[in-house]
């Protein structure tokens, strides 16, 4: 236990002694974690939005005007048996016209003279987001299209797929950029810890000659790296949180038009912990690289 | 032997008895520091054997080297005190290596500082001490784990003659308690005044074994 206490005390002392260079190292790790956290925030927000949009996306089955009650029953049975369908609503021709008139009042004027609604009746489905992947939805469409009484099947999925590909690309760019920055941060920490080792060379030599175990000599260096990483990550989270709050406040009006405000939330605590832990691991790695010089 | 056929020490055959007080002398480059480094196991000889207490130092594992060094005390010419630590913390460094509790550390540090006459400067920093006091702190640090062998490399090199004699008297007192003392110095006058066994090296060879 005294090794751990000693390592933390000495690491704290070393950080304070060279607070200028240590600050540089903390800022480097902070910048790397900030970039990674920013991409993570964008990615988490997009994932939330995708899940919501996928759930809300309409899968519409348009019915023929001459559909028989038996054919409708058969279609309902097929939908009841599908694991993809969360709920369904029947939209009559009259209801479809009413919606059209409400959503497109200018165009609706052209339909006002008709005795009967020219729009087809339909069944609108809400799909289960966790099951509604592209292949499953395609399969459902293939199954419904030839059913008796069905005139057409529509699913507004293509733009969601494009969005999913964009989200994946953002994630990859984030991971790649983050990995490069974290590597650079680890090397910066290693250099700073080596400077600290240089400043303590007399002490390390004296302790070596006293027969100090390697753990006691290397421990403070590794802990120094871990503390730098942890501080850098914590700093990055604070900056990211502040930037998020300011951005959310200033862009609320614009974002509100595109996104439901409830979808735009800061990273969950589990990801805070992961980012801080990641920073500590990167810092610790830098410390280990420096500590290897003590033999 | 260093590279390219240059010998730091050659044909050296010496025995130092337990509880002996020995001076190691000779001009600069004679091999005094190399001999101390061999005894500290900072170096291993390219040929021959360096044995302490019957153990061949070259054959010790890393852990055994650590254990062996805990039985030694050493004193440098430039003291090697930590400038940002108090006298108490400098001397307590050894106890920390040994994993002692802070109560044990404080008791032992106080005892040894009292022995070198610096118990009243426990909370001072090295920069606040004179050269002689700094060396006494370094000696206290060497003594704190009650070593069986003390190695000192030019311990009076930075001190005036009166302080040098004072430090040598401390080494004599340490030796009187049964600790083997090996002091490397080129100060012939000091050796004459202390009058102990002297081994003289020149160009890596023993030229006088006392």
| Secondary-structure class of chain A | alpha+beta
Radius of gyration of chain B: 17 Å
Order of helices and strands of chain A: HHEHEHHEHEHHHHH
Estimated radius of gyration of chain A: 30 Å
Structural class of chain B: alpha/beta
Q: Name the chain pair whose interface involves the most residues.
A: A-B, 18 and 21 residues
Shape of chain A: elongated
Identify the strand order in the major beta sheet of chain B. 4-5-6-1-7-8
If you consult CATH, what is the topology of the domain at 1-71 and 147-210 in chain B?
Answer: Rossmann fold
What is the helix content of chain A?
Answer: over 70%
Q: What is the number of helical segments of chain A per DSSP (H or I, 4+ residues)?
A: 11
Strand order of the largest sheet of chain A: 2-3-1-4
- Topology, number of strands of chain A: 4
What percent of residues of chain B are in strands? 15-25%
Biggest β-sheet description of chain A: 4 strands, antiparallel
Q: Give the CATH H-level superfamily of the domain at 1-71 and 147-210 in chain B.
A: P-loop containing nucleotide triphosphate hydrolases
In the predicted model, the low-confidence regions of chain B spanning at least 5 consecutive residues are none
Tell how many strands the DSSP assignment of chain B holds.
8
Q: How far apart, in Å, are the first and last alpha carbons of chain A?
A: 22 Å
Q: What value does the average pLDDT of chain A take?
A: 84
Q: Helix segment count of chain B?
A: 7
Would you mind describing this structure in some detail?
- The complex is a heterodimer of chains A (295) and B (210).
- Chain A has helices spanning 2-17, 19-56, 69-80, 93-103, 105-108, 134-144, 158-199, 201-209, 214-250, 252-258, 269-291, and strands at 59-63, 85-91, 122-127, 150-155.
- Chain A is an alpha+beta fold.
- Chain A is elongated, with a radius of gyration of 30 Å.
- Chain A folds into two domains: 2-52 and 161-291, no CATH class; 58-155, Alpha-Beta Plaits, CATH 3.30.70.
- A four-stranded antiparallel sheet of chain A has the order 2-3-1-4, with helices on both faces.
- In chain A, helix 2 crosses helix 9 (214-250).
- Chain B has 210 residues and is of the alpha/beta class.
- Chain B has a domain at 1-71 and 147-210: P-loop containing nucleotide triphosphate hydrolases (Rossmann fold).
- In chain B, strands 4-5-6-1-7-8 form a six-stranded mixed sheet, with helices on both faces.
- In chain B, strand 5 (149-153), helix 6 and strand 6 form a beta-alpha-beta unit.
- The chains are: A alpha+beta (295), B alpha/beta (210).
